[in-house]
Write a structure and sequence with these properties.
This protein is α/β, with parallel strands linked by helices and about 190 residues long. The chain contains seven helices and nine strands; from the N terminus they run E-H-E-E-E-H-E-E-H-E-H-E-H-H-E-H. The chain has two domains: about 130 residues, 3-Layer(aba) Sandwich (Rossmann fold); about 60 residues, Guanylate Kinase phosphate binding domain, CATH 3.30.63. It has a five-stranded parallel beta sheet with strand order 2-7-1-8-9, with helices on both faces. A four-stranded mixed beta sheet has the order 4-3-6-5. Helix 1 packs across helix 7. It starts with 5 loop residues before the first strand and ends with a helix. The structure holds guanosine-5'-monophosphate. Its EC number is 2.7.4.8.
Length: about 190
């Protein structure tokens, strides 16, 4: 019998190392997982690939797509919109694919409200306490007080969701290799379910 499709969601506060771990999962499980390209209204960053990293659209285009029912979930994070296209999720669920996607907490709450739990799993990246993450975030690039306050607000909300995650990956400074092994184990188990 064909295995059921599923959505593996990756969530973790800013500075938790989510992107590093996501890249690791893509490298190790690239041929077993499907990856959905989300839409965003933010501008591409250097090195990002349109159509792969995101579909880049204007705010107006995003709103039109959203109003037409294009997204299974959408959120405004900072000054930008983000959304996962519904058709890709439907295709995965109908065709037994395992879809892997990172997202922030508002999007997760919408998916949780829409899908039964056997159709999604949440992996949470715990990068330590706020003081720790703040140092990491500010070490990457300068940031306004306002932007930092926003990240802190998201941090508090995301940490409150942590207890409901199906798996928690601890990613402390200097222990990335251990976190990579941990997420590998977790994804493998989810694939073998
Ligand atoms: P970034 O601009 O750094 O690529 O992403 C900013 C935030 O948006 C991150 O927390 C990221 O996980 C989240 N994000 C990326 N794609 C999506 C999406 O499709 N939906 C939602 N809700 N959040 C997303």
């Amino acid at each position: 019998m064909q295995k059921k499709g599923m959505l593996i969601l990756l969530m973790g506060p800013s500075g938790s190392g989510k992107n590093t771990l996501k890249a690791h999962v893509e490298k190790v499980f690239g041929d077993q997982l499907s990856f959905v390209t989300s839409y965003t209204s933010r501008a591409p960053r250097p090195g990002e690939v349109p159509g792969k990293t995101y579909h880049y659209v204007s705010r107006e285009e995003f709103e039109a797509l959203r109003d037409a029912g294009k997204f299974i979930e959408w959120a405004e994070y900072g000054a930008n919109y983000y959304g996962i296209p519904l058709d890709a999720v439907q295709d995965a669920l109908e065709n037994g694919k395992i879809l892997f996607r990172e997202l922030e907490h508002k999007g997760y709450q919408q998916i949780k409200a829409k899908l039964p739990h056997d159709q999604y799993r949440l992996i949470f990246i715990d990068g330590g306490d706020w003081d720790h993450l703040k140092r990491r975030i500010l070490g990457r690039a300068p940031m306004s007080e306002e932007e930092l306050a926003l990240r802190k607000e998201s941090y508090d909300i995301e940490m409150a969701i942590k207890p409901e995650a199906d798996a928690v990956i601890v990613n402390k400074d200097g222990e990335v290799a251990a976190a990579e092994r941990a997420i590998e184990r977790v994804v493998r188990e989810m694939l073998e379910r």
